[in-house]
């Protein structure tokens, strides 16, 4: 997908040299004519072309640019060298290679956990996803629903449930994907490491002598260090978001509400993402006009 394809079609005439006045080339995709070349000129659909100089050497191959899923199917090349006609069918199969990503790589010690392997942008839809522990197949995995992207490719998630014994001795966990577009399976793997999920607190504060109200989202007691904090106002990222962070194993994000910008009413949420979490931790405050 996204590349150019060349559909081969060659021919010979009985009594060379060829006279282009008697030559006509027609290409069909299914029942639709996509290219016609004859002594009146050339007519073609977008993204398809032939090399007119190569025609005189018996090469009527069709070039198709920027191939998409919808281009897959049967093409027919018809060569007319009056009064004879030759035809050939070519099957174009579309492949899109899957991307494979394990979303969560840090586990909590002595706890069961769930891992998610995201497999995206593949075509055709048939695919096999296998989880491995030190090279051996793990049970207790489940495929989510197959979903189709706007470009016709597919995506799905595979979820694996691990028991505490599955993660002993820091094994290697791998998500292995087999697909007809791949000469060998594609995988994403990691060596088990342990962390601590964050504790999340959201509260409001006032600044002495200023009208603004400050909302604070604080994540603490987590390991390893990277963490992402996102504010949501009624489920959407605020356009006037101003935040600052300090690094380390305790971090905060600040959202300033300026009353001069109009009264904000609704829910303000803080979503915290961390390597130990499959889904973000979300804490929510109810906003209301001052004095209510």
From TrEMBL:
Protein name, per record: Ig-like domain-containing protein
Organism name: Xenopus tropicalis
Pfam families associated with the record: C1-set (PF07654), V-set (PF07686)
Domain Ig-like: 1-91, 98-191, 198-286
Record-linked PANTHER family: SIGNAL-REGULATORY PROTEIN BETA
Origin organism lineage: Eukaryota, Metazoa, Chordata, Craniata, Vertebrata
Domain of life: Eukaryota
Keyword vocabulary terms for this entry: Disulfide bond, Glycoprotein
């Amino acid at each position: 997908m996204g590349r150019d394809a060349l559909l081969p079609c060659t021919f010979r005439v009985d009594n060379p040299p060829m006279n282009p006045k008697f030559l006509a080339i027609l290409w069909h995709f299914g029942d639709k004519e996509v290219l016609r070349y004859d002594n009146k000129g050339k007519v073609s659909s977008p993204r398809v072309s032939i090399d007119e100089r190569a025609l005189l050497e018996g090469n009527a191959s069709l070039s198709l640019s920027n191939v998409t899923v919808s281009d897959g199917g049967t093409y027919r090349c018809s060569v007319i060298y009056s009064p004879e006609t030759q035809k050939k069918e070519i099957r174009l199969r579309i492949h899109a290679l899957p991307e494979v990503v394990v979303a969560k790589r840090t586990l909590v010690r002595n706890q069961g956990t769930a891992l998610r392997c995201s497999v995206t942008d593949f075509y055709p839809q048939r695919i096999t996803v296998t989880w491995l522990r030190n090279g051996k197949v793990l049970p207790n995995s489940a495929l989510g629903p197959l979903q189709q992207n706007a470009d016709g490719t597919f995506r799905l998630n595979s979820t694996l449930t691990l028991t505490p014994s599955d993660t002993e001795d820091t094994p290697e966990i791998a998500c292995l994907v087999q697909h007809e577009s791949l000469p060998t399976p594609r995988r994403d793997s990691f060596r088990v490491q342990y962390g601590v999920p964050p504790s999340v607190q959201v509260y409001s504060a006032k600044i002495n002598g200023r009208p603004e109200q400050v909302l604070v989202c604080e994540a603490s007691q987590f390991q390893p260090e990277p963490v992402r904090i996102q504010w949501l106002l009624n489920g959407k990222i605020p356009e006037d978001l101003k935040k600052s962070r300090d690094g380390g194993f305790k971090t905060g994000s600040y959202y300033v509400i300026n009353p001069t910008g109009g009264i904000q009413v609704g829910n303000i949420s803080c979503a915290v993402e961390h390597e130990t979490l499959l889904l973000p931790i979300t804490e929510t405050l109810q906003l209301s006009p001052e004095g209510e």
